């Protein structure tokens, strides 16, 4: 559980992004090896901007971000998993957390089921208790 701009967020490691960045690093290593062995020195200067923008810049821009799964704002609960939900706090009457799922009971007598994933149940309970009275 983290706080960001007065919002409570729960994040997980973005495995797809890590895999993509691994491929970019591998391609950049091949490019560096080619620059120092095969390519003539005059062309190295022409290739440096390409290597920077394609291989290095994405690592700094998006490389270390975690994927946000739950965001608790002042007005709503946002779930950003497979079936994305945005639920206003005023529409939730109660909640229940067990080891695998969060059950939100809505005021229109329906319920939404959200996964707990690998988050700490106590932290989820504490964060939901702040907004759901």
Can you describe what's shown?
Helices cover 42% and strands 30% of the residues. It is elongated and about 70 Å long. The longest helix is centred in the first third of the chain and has 23 residues, at 15-37. The strands form two sheets. The chain has a five-stranded antiparallel β-sheet, with helices on one face. A three-stranded antiparallel β-sheet has the order 6-7-8, with helices on one face. With 133 residues, it is an alpha+beta fold. The mean pLDDT is 84. The protein has helices at 15-37, 41-62, 121-131; strands at residues 2-4, 7-12, 67-72, 76-79, 85-88, 92-97, 101-106, 111-115.
How do you describe this structure in short?
Helices cover 42% and strands 30% of the residues.
**Quaternary status of these chains?**
single chain
What share of the residues lie within helices?
40-55%
Number of E-type strands: 8
| Tally of helical runs | 3
Sheet with the most strands? Answer: 5 strands, antiparallel
Arrangement of strands in the largest sheet: 1-2-3-4-5
Cα-based radius of gyration, to the nearest Å: 22 Å
* Structural category: alpha+beta
Overall mean confidence score, pLDDT: 84
Order of helices and strands: EEHHEEEEEEH
Strand content: 25-35%
- Measure the end-to-end span: 20 Å
Shape: elongated
Give the low-confidence spans. Answer: none
